[in-house]
Design the sequence.
C-alpha cells in the first residue's frame, strides 16, 4: 500500500529525495516483491538526472532470474520510453535476452518493449518478426503480440510483385494450429482484417472460426461470430459455409451472440432460406433488448433489398413486430425500413401502406405519425383504391394531438387534389376541421379549402403544385435566408437559397503573440469565419449594391474563403470567388495588422499565368484600411457565357501607406506606395459546380435521359488506398456525395461513389464513380455521368482528363 500511495501521489522535485533513498535500498532488498515494487515506483517518480544513477540496477533487473522483478523492470521501461528514450534504447541487449525467457509474462513484456524501441526502423522490425516467427516465442500473450507486429510488417511490405504471395503469411497460417485458443483467434482475426485479402487466404481462417462457433466457451463463440459478422459485410460468400453452425446460435443464452448470429445469417443467407430464417427470428425477437432489435431490423431491410421477391414475408414480419411493445428508436427503425422498401420495391407499396395505416391507429409517437401521414398523402392517391386510406387519415383529425391533426389535414388535401372523385367528400371533412381548437389546423383547413374549391383546371393544377412541391433546400439555409431578407419591392426568391448541405468553414486561426497585432488578427479571423458562414443572399446583396457588377446577371455560386497569406503576416487576405454565367468576380477580404500604418487606395493587381478565356473588365479598390478593420476590394473578369473556364492568376496587393502617430491616432499627410505579394489564385472546375444532393440517387439517375450518359475509363496510377482515389476525384469535381458513399470499407478491392450537383446554368448532373485497385495498388476508374444537358456530361469528363 505504501508503494502504491507514493506512486499515485507523485512527490514534487523538492520532496522526492525523501523517498528516493529508501526506494533505492528496497531495489537491493532480498525480498523480490519489494524489489519489483521499488522499481515500478522509482521509475514513476524519478527524473532524467536520477535515472542515470539507477540505470545499472534497472538493466540488471531486466535479466533478473525472478520473473516478477524482470517484468516490473520491462514495464517500467515501456513507460520511461516516452520521456527518456535514449536511456531505454541502451537496454536492447538485455531486452532481447528477456524475450528468450521461459517466463510467459517476461517474454510478453520484453517483446512489447523491444517493438517500441524498434518501431521507427522498418528493417529492424522486419528482422525482429523474421527471427521470432521461427518458433522461439512460447508465451501465448507474446505470440498474440507477434501476430499483430507481423500484420504491420505485411501491410508495409505488400504482396510479392511476381508471385502475389504475402511475406510471413505462412507464419500466420501456422498460428491457426497453435494449442492456445487466444493465439488461434488472433491469427484468424488478423487474416480476415488484412487489406485486399483473397478467398484462398481467407479459407483457413474461416474454418477455424467455424470450429469456435460450436465451442463450449461463450467468449470463443462470441469472438468467432463477431469476426464472421464483419467479414460478411464485405465477403458474404466466404461466410456462407458457416450458416448451419450459426443457426444453432440463434437460441444461445447469450443474447449478444444470438443477435450477431442472426444479423450474419441475414447477410449471407440465400433466397430459398429466407422463410425458414424468419420463423426462427420471430421467437427470438421478444427475448432481446431494443438496441439488439434495431440491428436485426436493419439487417432484414438489407435482406429485402437483396431479395425483392421475398418482400411479402419480410414486410409481414416487420408489420408484426411493429405492433409489439418497444421504444421510439426501435419503432422508428421499423418504420424507416418499411418506407425504404416502399420506395425501392414498387410491388410492396400497397401492402406497406396498409401496415402503416394499422400502426398509426395506436401509435404513441407524434414524429412517426406525422411521417406516415406525409407518406400517405404523397403515395395514397396513386394507389388502386385511394378511398380506403381516408378513414385512417381522418381518424387522426378526431383522436390525435394538434401536430398530428395538422399533418392529417394536409394529407386529406392531397387526396382531394389528386383524386377528383373523392374531392367532394374531402371538402366536407376539411370544413369540419374549421372548428378545430388549434390555430395551425384551422389555418391549413382554410387554405386547402380555398385551393380545392376553385373549379377551373388551372386552379387545380396550381393546388397540386402547391401541395406536392418538394423543398429542395436545407431548412436551416432557408431559415437564415428569411432572417436576412429585408422587405422591399423585390420579392423573396426561393431559388436564391443555397443548396449546399455541407458548408466549408475557414479553419480557426490563432492570434499572434504581439500585442500590436492581436486586435487586428482577431478581426481578420472573424472576417474569415464570417465569410465562410455568410449566406448566399448576403453575398448577392453586397454585389448588387456595387453598380459595376449589377448588370452581370444572376449570381450562381459563391465559394468559401481561400487564404492568400500566411497566418503570421503583416496583411491578412482571403478571397471569395463569385461565379456568374459570363463573369467571375473576386472579392478580396483584406485586413491590416500593423498599428502604425494606414493603408489607402488598396487594390489587387492580377496577371493571368494559365488560361486564355479571362479578360479583366472592372476593379473596385478599397479606399482606406486602418489597422484591425476588414475591407473588401474587388476584381471582375469576363469569360465566355456559360463556359467552364479554368485559369491561374498571380496577385499583388498594392496600396498607399501613411504613418500613424500611436499617441494621437492621426495619420501623416504624406506617404509612399508599397505592394505585398499574395499567393497564386486558381479558378478550378469545382467553382462551376454547386453541391446539390438528391434524396434518392437511383430515382434521380433513372429520371435523366440515358442518351445524355457518357462513360469512360481512366487509370489513376498508384494510390495508397481506394479511399485516397475517391477523395482525390471528389475534391476535383467539388460535387455533393450522396448516401455516404465517400467512405470506402477497409478491405474493399472495388467501390462505387455517387455524386450530385448542379452545373453552371443550373443544370443537374449526376456521377457514378467506380474504382478498383489491384495487388500493385494500381487504381482504375470508370466514370459514368448523366446530365440534363449532354454537353455537361462531356465537360465533366474533360475535367477529369485535364
Sequence:
Amino acid at each position: 500500500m505504501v508503494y502504491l500511495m507514493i506512486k499515485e501521489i507523485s512527490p514534487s522535485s523538492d520532496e522526492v529525495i525523501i523517498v528516493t533513498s529508501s526506494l533505492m535500498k528496497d531495489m537491493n532488498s532480498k525480498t523480490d516483491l519489494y524489489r519489483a515494487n521499488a522499481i515500478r515506483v522509482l521509475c514513476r517518480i524519478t527524473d532524467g538526472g536520477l535515472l542515470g544513477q539507477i540505470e545499472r540496477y534497472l538493466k540488471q533487473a531486466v535479466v533478473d532470474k525472478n520473473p516478477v522483478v524482470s517484468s516490473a523492470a520491462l514495464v517500467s521501461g515501456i513507460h520511461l520510453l516516452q520521456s527518456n528514450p535514449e536511456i531505454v534504447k541502451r537496454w536492447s541487449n538485455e531486452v532481447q535476452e528477456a524475450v528468450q525467457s521461459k517466463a510467459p509474462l517476461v517474454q510478453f513484456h520484453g517483446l512489447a518493449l523491444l517493438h517500441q524501441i524498434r518501431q521507427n526502423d522498418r528493417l529492424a522490425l522486419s528482422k525482429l518478426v523474421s527471427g521470432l516467427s521461427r518458433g522461439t516465442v512460447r508465451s501465448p500473450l507474446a505470440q498474440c503480440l507477434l501476430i499483430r507486429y507481423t500484420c504491420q510488417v505485411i501491410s508495409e511490405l505488400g504482396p510479392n510483385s511476381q508471385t502475389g504471395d504475402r511475406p510471413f503469411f505462412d507464419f500466420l497460417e501456422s498460428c491457426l494450429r497453435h494449442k492456445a485458443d487466444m493465439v488461434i483467434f488472433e491469427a484468424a482475426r488478423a487474416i480476415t482484417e488484412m487489406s485486399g485479402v483473397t478467398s484462398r487466404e481467407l479459407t483457413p481462417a474461416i474454418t477455424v472460426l467455424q470450429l469456435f462457433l460450436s465451442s463450449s466457451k461463450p467468449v470463443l463463440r462470441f469472438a468467432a461470430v463477431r469476426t464472421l459478422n464483419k467479414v460478411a459485410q464485405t465477403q458474404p460468400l466466404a461466410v456462407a459455409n458457416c450458416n448451419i453452425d450459426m443457426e444453432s446460435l440463434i437460441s444461445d443464452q447469450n443474447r449478444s451472440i444470438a443477435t450477431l448470429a442472426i444479423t450474419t445469417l441475414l447477410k449471407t443467407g440465400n433466397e430459398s432460406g429466407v422463410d425458414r430464417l424468419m420463423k426462427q427470428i420471430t421467437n427470438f425477437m421478444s427475448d432481446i433488448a431494443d438496441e439488439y432489435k434495431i440491428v436485426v431490423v436493419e439487417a432484414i431491410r438489407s435482406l429485402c433489398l437483396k431479395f425483392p421477391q421475398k418482400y411479402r414475408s419480410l414486410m409481414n414480419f416487420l408489420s408484426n413486430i411493429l405492433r409489439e411493445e418497444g421504444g421510439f428508436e426501435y419503432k422508428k427503425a421499423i418504420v424507416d425500413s418499411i418506407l425504404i422498401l416502399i420506395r425501392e420495391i414498387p410491388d410492396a407499396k400497397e401492402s406497406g401502406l396498409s401496415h402503416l395505416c394499422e400502426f398509426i391507429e395506436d401509435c404513441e409517437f407524434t414524429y412517426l405519425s406525422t411521417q406516415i401521414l406525409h407518406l400517405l398523402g404523397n403515395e395514397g392517391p396513386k394507389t388502386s383504391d385511394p378511398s380506403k386510406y381516408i378513414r385512417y387519415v381522418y381518424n387522426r383529425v378526431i383522436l390525435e394531438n394538434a401536430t398530428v391533426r395538422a399533418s392529417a389535414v394536409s394529407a386529406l388535401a392531397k387526396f382531394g387534389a389528386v383524386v377528383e372523385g373523392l374531392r367532394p367528400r374531402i371538402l366536407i371533412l376539411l370544413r369540419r376541421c374549421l372548428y378545430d381548437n388549434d390555430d395551425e389546423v384551422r389555418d391549413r383547413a382554410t387554405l386547402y379549402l380555398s385551393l380545392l374549391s376553385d373549379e377551373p383546371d388551372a386552379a387545380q393544377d396550381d393546388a397540386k403544385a402547391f401541395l406536392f412541391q418538394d423543398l429542395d433546400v436545407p431548412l436551416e439555409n432557408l431559415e437564415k435566408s428569411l432572417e436576412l431578407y429585408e422587405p422591399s419591392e423585390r420579392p423573396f426568391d426561393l431559388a436564391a437559397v443555397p443548396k449546399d448541405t455541407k458548408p466549408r468553414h475557414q479553419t480557426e486561426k490563432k492570434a499572434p503573440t504581439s500585442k500590436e497585432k492581436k486586435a487586428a488578427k482577431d478581426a481578420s479571423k472573424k472576417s474569415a469565419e464570417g465569410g465562410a458562414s455568410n449566406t448566399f443572399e448576403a453575398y448577392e446583396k453586397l454585389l448588387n449594391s456595387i453598380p459595376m457588377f449589377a448588370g452581370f446577371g444572376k449570381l450562381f455560386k459563391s465559394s468559401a474563403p481561400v487564404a492568400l497569406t500566411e497566418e503570421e503576416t503583416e496583411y491578412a487576405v482571403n478571397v471569395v470567388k463569385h461565379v456568374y454565367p459570363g463573369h467571375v468576380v473576386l472579392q478580396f477580404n483584406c485586413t491590416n495588422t500593423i498599428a502604425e500604418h494606414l493603408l489607402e487606395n488598396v487594390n489587387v493587381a492580377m496577371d493571368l499565368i494559365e488560361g486564355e478565356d479571362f479578360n479583366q473588365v472592372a476593379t473596385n479598390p478599397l479606399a482606406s484600411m486602418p489597422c484591425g478593420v476588414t475591407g473588401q476590394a474587388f476584381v471582375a473578369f469576363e469569360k465566355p457565357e456559360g463556359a467552364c473556364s479554368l485559369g491561374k492568376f498571380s496577385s499583388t496587393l498594392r496600396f498607399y501607406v501613411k504613418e500613424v502617430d500611436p499617441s494621437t491616432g492621426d495619420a501623416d499627410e504624406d506617404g509612399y506606395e508599397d505592394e505585398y505579394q499574395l499567393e497564386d489564385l486558381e479558378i478550378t472546375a469545382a467553382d462551376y459546380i454547386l453541391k446539390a444532393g438528391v434524396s434518392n440517387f437511383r430515382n434521380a439517375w433513372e429520371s435523366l435521359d440515358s442518351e445524355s450518359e457518357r462513360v469512360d475509363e481512366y487509370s489513376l496510377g498508384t494510390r495508397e488506398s481506394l479511399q485516397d482515389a475517391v477523395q482525390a476525384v471528389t475534391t476535383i469535381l467539388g460535387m455533393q456525395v450522396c448516401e455516404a458513399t465517400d467512405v470506402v470499407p477497409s478491405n474493399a478491392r472495388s467501390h462505387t461513389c455517387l455524386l450530385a450537383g448542379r452545373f453552371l446554368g443550373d443544370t443537374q448532373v449526376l456521377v457514378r464513380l467506380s474504382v478498383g485497385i489491384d495487388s500493385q495498388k494500381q487504381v482504375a476508374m470508370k466514370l459514368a455521368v448523366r446530365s440534363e444537358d449532354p454537353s455537361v456530361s462531356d465537360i465533366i469528363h474533360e475535367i477529369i482528363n485535364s
